[in-house]
Design a protein that fits this description.
Strand content: under 5%
Helix content: over 70%
Structural class: mainly alpha
Largest sheet: none
Number of domains: 1
């Protein structure tokens, strides 16, 4: 259950004000087909989370317990630093002519490669069993972060204190990562 909650909260936090939300806003304004865009979000989130969890399940047995903890600390530090780093808006995919579902599914799937949320799911799946809980939690967190943008459009960014969420979340994730890293190397009990 820890894997599910950690992935859910981490991915939800990691997506707030991120490039995925800005892409979803651009697609929602362009297509105005909320159901198709939400279906694309769900497919992309599940596919990315499953791929990350599979990679974590494959890598985890190759590492010792302290190495897995250090790997998870690195994933949390990567996500935390990403929240503190200035974010550029992604390409709105105006040239894609494949419809709202495929554009949102493929666009978000591709955009998520190398993002902090995907790396967090991988780290959790490598550290905790069963890895499927990391995938489920991560996918739910991403979906919860994206769907309100489709429903509220520009109002979402006007109402949410995204800068405060990103800075506070980034600081908390970096602190948790530092504590985990110190435990992994034996400098903290």
């Amino acid at each position: 259950m820890d894997a599910l909650l950690l992935a859910l909260i981490g991915c939800l936090l990691g997506e707030m004000g991120g490039r995925g939300q800005w892409l979803v806003l651009a697609l929602a304004n362009r297509f105005e087909r909320d159901g198709a865009i939400i279906a694309g979000i769900i497919v992309a989130a599940i596919a990315n989370a499953a791929l990350s969890a599979l990679a974590g399940a494959w890598i985890g047995p190759m590492l010792g317990p302290y190495a897995r903890l250090l790997f998870l600390a690195l994933a949390m530090a990567f996500l935390g630093a990403g929240l503190l780093w200035p974010m550029r808006r992604p390409d709105p995919l105006d040239g894609w002519r494949i419809g709202p579902f495929l554009t949102s599914a493929l666009g978000l799937f591709i955009l998520s490669f190398g993002e902090g949320s995907q790396f967090l799911i991988l780290g959790i799946a490598a550290r905790m069993n069963p890895p499927v809980l990391a995938a489920v939690g991560g996918a739910i967190g991403v979906i919860i972060a994206m769907v309100p943008v489709v429903a509220m459009r520009d109002r979402f960014f006007a109402v949410m204190p995204l800068r405060a969420i990103r800075w506070t979340g980034g600081a908390l994730l970096l602190l948790a990562a530092a504590i985990m890293a110190l435990k992994a190397v034996g400098l903290m009990a």
